[in-house]
Fold this protein.
Amino acid sequence: MRYKTYTAKSFKDIPQVKENLTDEQIFDIEVVSRVFPFKVNNYVIEKLINWENPLGDPIFRLTFPQRGMLQDEDYYEIAKLIKNGESEEKIKQAANEIRIKLNPHPAGQKYNVPEINGQKLHGAQHKYKETILFFPKQGQTCHAYCSFCFRWPQFVGIDELKFAMKEVEILIEYIKNHPEITDILFTGGDPLIMKTHVLKQYIEPILEANIPHLKTIRIGTKALGFWPYRFLTDNDAQELLDLFKKIVDKGYHLAYMAHFNHYKELETDEVKEAVQKIKETGAVIRTQSPILRHINDNPDVWAKMWKEQVQQGMIPYYMFMARDTGAQHYFGVPIVRAWEIFRDAYKKVSGIARTVRGPSMSATPGKIRILGITEINGKKYIALDFLQGRNPDWVGKPFFAEYDENALWIDDLKPAFTDKFFYEDELEEMLNTENNLLQVI
Ligand SMILES: *Cc1c(COP(=O)(O)O)cnc(C)c1O
Ligand code: SF4
């Protein structure tokens, strides 16, 4: 299949859209896509979406902008501007004002920019001791966009929010200076949007640097879900698989972090074949997804997804909570409900699939897991712990919040038994200190 993409400007040309959506539904997509990024491709359209009932289809909802992603007042504002035939400039300005209201930069990411010799590495993030995140400049887009994506500001061009770094040499220098770093995680966007020869320009210097404490190369990607031909028929598919093999042969653990949101993405012949090709290189595929209303907020969907992943030889890794940005009001699943779904799904799978952890919130202090609802002296509480902490010592200590069925995020929770969560003072100090642990020693 030859890669063909459609965006806000061209989606009306998709034959399935013309045939199956009403004018009103098409207009809704047009309105919402003025605010949120929209890109879809021919594989998603032809192989994944069930066009008999598009608005009820999880993959349609995953890729096409939804009416409910905008609050009514914002929807009507953009709709009016379009209907009145206002200038692109005016619509763009209104869209930008709405975007700013949607918390485009959550989870204190500005605090995690590493620094070496007084130079900031804007294309990297070092939040947890062992793992450095790297955003290669040419990897800042994807084969299609997820409607819920928390990286949405990168795709709509709010430029100062773009993480991207070209100089891999500076990155290598930083890793060499940080013996605690064992993992580098290539992320984006989607790093596998890059042609293999571009990806090589990042990976090969890292391999050649022979950094003894660097053990794992991770690639966070949705290529299997959105474009499995990346490993099958793209003209540099074999070269990519050869690069994977080279990484493994050099003694690194190559962790392919696959993003899948629904079992439907695992069912095509193409994805199955691509999974086997990746595994043949010696890479290990781990899977992760947020839990999303309208897409996968159902334990049966998760149980079936984890089982199918295990069947194909992948390892379920994380269930995330939808971040507090963008259309969280539309996609967000409350903490209590997310835990129920996680538990109901977890109960249904064998121990082999119980490698998955979650539901987890990637928040400013760290990755906070919802351990569950518990009752103490007849009163309900929410138990939590850290899977990753800005301070590694926070990990694995249960703590408690007041029961709240509507809370969507850690910021919505009130501490139980005390007036602050145990980490709060320390966190505040960390964020206030310039010389915090994220800087070069
Ligand atoms: C999730 C995450 C990592 C990786 O954490 P693991 O638990 O090792 O998978 C690294 N950095 C950031 C900022 C993250 O959010
Ligand atoms: S593939 Fe990942 S980065 Fe790209 S839109 Fe989806 S969630 Fe966002």
